[in-house]
Write a structure and sequence with these properties.
By secondary structure, the chain is an alpha+beta fold. The protein contains 6 helices and 11 strands. It folds into 2 domains: 89 residues, Phosphorylase Kinase, domain 1, CATH 3.30.200; 180 residues, Orthogonal Bundle (Transferase(Phosphotransferase), domain 1).
Length: 289
């Protein structure tokens, strides 16, 4: 059985400097590469090299990496730097990704804003500068998803925690965005090798209709749906379906009992509030057509 790495351990020249902890599919670490560059190292629990679909998974990862590297998605998704199999208590698949430094994920940023709201009773977006940031982040997020989709990549696990924001004054938007956790993303034109063996990765309160439908496969519209949820949080100030009970979340998402929302503030021109509101409403349609 494969064993967990510890700080100071070295595997294939990668020296572990920090343990982030286990996720659903992998254990994550910060590590220094053989050349001294910091990377995000993942030690996979699934797939194990022993499973029948493992060789196809490795090939699928390379195709995902090639599409990211050779398309506009290169500006928005973390790069796969290296991938290898090594024995560490047992045969294990490892992948080294670009490390996102000096950034913060959108989930933490929004939670800090909610904490300010709880403490002061004043909505952060009453500050025009905060609202302007939200609008910018919404635009950059949609640009990132458009770039992925142009390369026929479905992220399939979009959520605020998978969107890292990095201040970059050299960009017109003022921010660079990096999408993480693309290793179980889906190619729109190729069946995922784990199909029929395990489910598709998703997160509570951010699963698309396809994630919640037996036998269904995430499609490009699945990302549009989850983008709609995030855009609601940024521009409306609430998650429209948030529930502790995920069966209730699924029920509400399928019912689509929503009206076009009122935005928190006025969108900057040439955007129009009514038009943006209608777009957000359409994003959450359970009918991908």
């Amino acid at each position: 059985m494969a064993k967990k790495l510890r700080v100071g351990d070295t595997i294939r020249g990668y020296r572990v400097t920090k343990v982030f902890g286990p996720g659903m599919m992998a254990i994550s670490y910060a590590a220094d590469s053989p050349s001294g560059v910091q990377v995000f190292l993942k030690q996979y629990k699934s797939p194990s090299p022993a499973v029948v679909w493992y060789p196809q998974f490795v090939e699928y990862q390379q195709e995902l990496s090639n599409r990211v590297r050779n398309g506009k998605a290169a500006h928005y998704a973390v790069r796969l730097i290296d991938a290898f199999e090594e024995t560490w208590g047992g045969r294990t698949y490892f992948a080294a990704y670009e490390f996102v430094a000096d950034g913060r994920d959108l989930d933490h940023v929004l939670e800090e804003e909610r904490e300010v709201h709880r403490r002061t009773k004043v909505a952060p977006t009453r500050d025009p500068a905060v609202w302007a940031r939200h609008v910018t982040w919404a635009k950059v997020l949609m640009g990132a998803i458009a770039a992925l989709h142009e390369s026929k990549i479905i992220h399939a696990d979009l959520k605020p925690g998978n969107a890292f924001l990095i201040k970059d004054p050299s960009l017109g938007s003022g921010y660079q965005l990096k999408l993480i956790d693309t290793d179980f993303s889906v190619l729109a034109d190729r069946k995922a090798p784990w199909h029929g063996y395990q489910g598709y990765v998703g997160t509570d309160n951010y699963r698309s209709i396809e994630h919640m439908t037996r036998g269904a496969v995430p499609i490009l519209a699945s990302d549009i749906f989850t983008c709609g949820l995030i855009l609601y949080e940024l521009l409306v100030g609430v998650h429209p379906y948030w529930q502790e009970d995920q069966a209730e979340y699924a029920k509400r998402a399928r019912a689509y009992d929503l009206k076009p929302p009122a935005l928190l503030r006025v969108m900057p021109p040439p955007a129009d509030n009514a038009e943006v509101s209608a777009i957000l409403h359409r994003c959450l349609s359970p009918d991908p057509e």
